Amino acid sequence: MTAFTLVTAPAVEPVTLVEMKTHARIDSSAEDDLITALIVAAREWAERYTGRAFINQTWKLSLDKMPEGNFITLSRPPLVSVSSVKVFDDSDASETWAASNYFVDVASEPGRLALRQGASWPDPARATNGVVIEYIAGYGGASSAVPGVIKTAIKQLVTHWIENRGEALMAPSSRGDGTVHQSSLNVPMVIHAILNSYRIQRLGA
User: Fold this and answer.
1) Taking the model in full, what pTM does it have?
2) What number is the average pLDDT over the span 165-174?
3) What CATH class is the domain 14-54+143-198?
């Protein structure tokens, strides 16, 4: 069994509040909190739809056992780097597997962690989540690194939600914590079409 977990969220969004308000031709600051929440919601939806990470973020892949092949696929491309590979014993103590054992393939999408010649996968003693791979994925640490098509899709999606909030945005923050519930959001097909060229056939999260 495998599990993907977000460890560190992106520090910034692909689209700033100022950029979004300029795109939507909004002068007032009365709804800044809502627009900010919608930018996050749009980015999270677009990342899930494309299977990608936009701004650099840290992910963790937990494996019960190692694969039979020579590589492990790391979801949410583009892959930047592998931070660590930790192997756990039955007492939950971990040991870092040496980076000399593997090659990090950042050219493939999704990226891969591949065995070096002569190396073999470690044998975890812990039956569940015996191996944990932590890695960084994304186009870069700044919004300028994100492809313009993706940023355009986010802007158009947020604009759609703002202009059609009665039907497209049914419950923007029912918890009262400033978040937007993904289940309450409607996404027009034109947004899917814009992002289709960036969509990855996902094997994991």
Assistant:
1) 0.86
2) 50
3) mainly alpha
